[in-house]
Amino acid sequence: MKPMLTLTEFSQIKALSDPFRAEMMMRLLEKPYTGQQLSEYFNMSRAKIHYHLKDLEKNGLIEIVYTEEKNGIIQKFYQSVARGFTPAAELLPHIGDVSETSRQLILQMAERTKRHILAAPEEAFKLDKATEDPSQWNYVGSLWEFSATEEQFKAWIKKYFDLMEEITGMAKDAESNPNSKVYFVSTTALQIDEPSMKRFNKEN
């Protein structure tokens, strides 16, 4: 699976802007699924699931990663071709569709984060001791709101993705370590219309 896929066709944008397909892509980002498994997960007919899978596959967004025979039937396992998607410059004139695609994918990421929080083991929220030192915390839950120029924000995003590369290297080192645990990171950062966090300044 590639880290990032550049979308070069308008049809790819349209395919991902559909809320249901965006939700399906979240499942296919996590692991391979068959049409039958997705049909059961979404409680939807095989025919409808197959229609959506074929459209996503036709647009180069998912692929068959392996097949398996069960009861004489060949099952096809589909998975996303990339962990993330970004539009090519020539698609920017279709900004409305590009924006809606991004909105739907981020919404599905937020839903997935919610499910992980609700299903997390009690150990995930355990506090070994009271401390303000972040290196001693077992989890992070934080909301930030700030003002910055567009250039500053983009520079921060670059630093964030550099940090994600560090996580990728750390994960490879942990694959053979029997003491390693699985952690989930979810980050959303975007421009909003107006401040939602009001700060009281005693001096004013």
Summarize this entry quickly.
The protein has 204 residues and is α+β, with helices and mostly antiparallel strands. It has helices at residues 10-17, 19-30, 35-42, 46-58, 95-119, 150-174, and strands at residues 5-7, 62-70, 73-80, 85-87. α2 (19-30) packs across α5 (95-119) and α3 (35-42) crosses α4 (46-58).
Radius of gyration: 20 Å
- Total count of strands: 4
- CATH class reads Mainly Alpha
Strand content is 5-15%
Domain HTH arsR-type: 9-90
GO molecular function: DNA binding; DNA-binding transcription factor activity
Keywords: DNA-binding
Pfam family, one: HTH_5
Tell me what you see in this structure.
45% of the residues lie in helices and 11% in strands. It contains 6 helices and 4 strands. The protein has a two-stranded parallel sheet. Strand 2 (62-70) and strand 3 form a beta hairpin. The longest helix is centred in the middle third of the chain and has 25 residues, at 95-119. The chain is globular. This is ArsR family transcriptional regulator. InterPro entries: ArsR-like_HTH, HTH_ArsR_DNA-bd_dom, WH-like_DNA-bd_sf, WH_DNA-bd_sf. One of its GO terms (molecular function) is DNA-binding transcription factor activity. Keywords: DNA-binding.
Which secondary structure elements does this structure contain, and how are they paired or packed?
Elements: E1 5-7, H1 10-17, H2 19-30, H3 35-42, H4 46-58, E2 62-70, E3 73-80, E4 85-87, H5 95-119, H6 150-174
Parallel strand pairs: 1-4
Antiparallel strand pairs: 2-3
Helix pairs in contact: 1-5, 2-5, 3-4
